[in-house]
C-alpha cells in the first residue's frame, strides 16, 4: 500500500510531488524548508530555518502515523558550510536521542535564495 500526503505548499503541485509518501513500513519526507504559507520565514537564520524545516517534516510524519522516534535517516542541505554548527545544533535538539543516520551537504543554492537549509527525512514504522 502506498499513501501520499500534501501540505499544500506552493511547489508540490507545480513540480508534481508529495510532501511525504508511506510505502509499506517506510516513509519518505520530501525536502522541507522554512517556507510557511508560501513565504520563507527566518531569513538569514540557519538555526531557526532548520528548526522550522524539521517541524514541517515531523508534521508530515505525524499525518502518516509516525513520530520522530521512527526517523532512521536525515539529510541536511545547506547553502554555506559556515551554517553547519547552527544546523547541527538544531538537528540535535530533535534527534539527539533518536540517532538517525545523517548527512549534511553543502549545495550551490535552493529554489529560493532566502532558503539556507533543506531537510529530508526517512522513517521506518518498525523503528520505535
From TrEMBL:
UniProt-listed InterPro entries: RutC-like_sf (IPR035959), YjgF/YER057c/UK114 (IPR006175)
Pfam families, A to Z: Ribonuc_L-PSP
Top-rank taxon, per record: Bacteria
Protein name: RidA family protein
Lineage per the UniProt record: Bacteria, Bacillati, Actinomycetota, Actinomycetes, Streptosporangiales
Amino acid at each position: 500500500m502506498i499513501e501520499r500526503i500534501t501540505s499544500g505548499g506552493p511547489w508540490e503541485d507545480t513540480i508534481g510531488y508529495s510532501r511525504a509518501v508511506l510505502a509499506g513500513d517506510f516513509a519518505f519526507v520530501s525536502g522541507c524548508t522554512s517556507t510557511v504559507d508560501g513565504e520563507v520565514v527566518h531569513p538569514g537564520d540557519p538555526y531557526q530555518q532548520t528548526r522550522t524545516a524539521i517541524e514541517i517534516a515531523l508534521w508530515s510524519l505525524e499525518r502518516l502515523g509516525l513520530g520522530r522516534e521512527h526517523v532512521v535517516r536525515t539529510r541536511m542541505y545547506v547553502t554555506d558550510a559556515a551554517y553547519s554548527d547552527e544546523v547541527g545544533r538544531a538537528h540535535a535538539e530533535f534527534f539527539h536521542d533518536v540517532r538517525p543516520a545523517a548527512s549534511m551537504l553543502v549545495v550551490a543554492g535552493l529554489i529560493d535564495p532566502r532558503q539556507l537549509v533543506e531537510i529530508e527525512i526517512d522513517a521506518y514504522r518498525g523503528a520505535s
